[in-house]
Amino acid sequence: MNQAANTTLVRALDAMCADASGADVALQAKFAVALRHFHAMLDELQLTDAELYRIADWLKRVAQEDELVMLCDMMGLTMHALDLARSGGEATAQNVTGPFPKDNVPEGNNPCQLASQDEPGQRLEVRGQVRDAATGRAVPGAQVILWQPNQYGRYENEDDSQSADNLRGKLRCDEAGGFRVYTIRPGGYIVGREDTAVGVLMKALGRNRERAPHIHYRVLHPGYQTLTSQIYFEGDPANPVDCIFSTIPDHIVPAQPHPERDDWQLVTLDIAIEPAGQ
């Protein structure tokens, strides 16, 4: 860093006054870290003011196209932040929420019929239990919300051929914390479009926009932290190339031949939720 650039950074840091009216000292400390990294990036890339403003204009376009979250996902920032937030205990790890959650779907029975009888695809049962991460005990009455794309990788709210709330469901765990969901194996899909700001960037970087097949779920219960996560399928060839890097080993599960239903597959899912405040 040359002397002038170093002076500019020092002045930018010194411009924050802890005693100023309305000042947030904690925010100032975090912003100082960001400033140091931003200035270091300018030094390493030797960016001119014109290049800096082109980046700003590009970010403006990303925001206008509502792809800022997608950009964070595809840069690996979302999963990195989730990894940093992990407690290191027995709790199931959080995963990316994705763009299409709906918490207000009607609550149904347990077992939950997520896929109708005429939904095409490989039939699948997801059978699991919700337990307390601290004690290992079952959590009766925990609410489980699930959503997924169809076998072609399309969610109902982006596909006019599907009925409202197709492949979405909500249920309560039984007294043993157990739940069962009858559905189909989802297909993978391509995220976003090739002609958006993020899409053009991904192509220029030689990156794919492929998501590995997955099922989203959210678990809620009073006194516990809300868990939002996903399950992926062992052996799927798209797992290693998932474009948002969310196919972590803890969330990859085997789909076995169902012991009780011909031509079905069975996934067993153990979910541990963390008590609030931990």
Percentage of residues in DSSP E strands: 15-25%
What does the largest sheet look like?
A: 5 strands, mixed
Helix content percent band: 25-40%
Q: Estimate the global geometry from the Cα principal axes.
A: globular
How would you name the CATH homologous superfamily of the largest domain? Answer: Aromatic compound dioxygenase
Q: Which value, in Å, is the CA radius of gyration?
A: 23 Å
Strand numbers in spatial order across the main sheet: 1-5-2-12-11
From the 3D coordinates, which CATH architecture of the largest domain would you assign?
A: Sandwich
Q: Please provide the count of β strands.
A: 12
End-to-end Cα distance, whole Å, is 42 Å
Decide which structural class fits the backbone: alpha/beta
**H/E element sequence:** HHHHHEEEEEEHEEEEEE
Average residue-wise pLDDT: 94
Uncertain parts: none
Helix tally? 6
- How many domain regions? 2
> Can you identify the CATH class of the largest domain?
Mainly Beta
- The CATH topology annotation of the largest domain reads as Protocatechuate 3,4-Dioxygenase, subunit A
Could you explain how this protein is built, in words?
The protein is of the alpha/beta class and 278 residues long. The protein has 2 domains: 3-76, no CATH class; 81-273, Protocatechuate 3,4-Dioxygenase, subunit A, CATH 2.60.130. It has helices at 3-14, 25-45, 49-64, 68-74, 77-85, 197-204; strands at 112-113, 123-132, 143-147, 168-172, 178-184, 189-190, 210-211, 214-220, 227-233, 252-253, 256-257, 265-273. The chain has a 5-stranded mixed beta sheet with strand order 1-5-2-12-11, with no helix packed on it. Strands 4-3-8-9-10 form a 5-stranded mixed beta sheet, with no helix packed on it. The protein has a two-stranded antiparallel sheet with strand order 6-7.
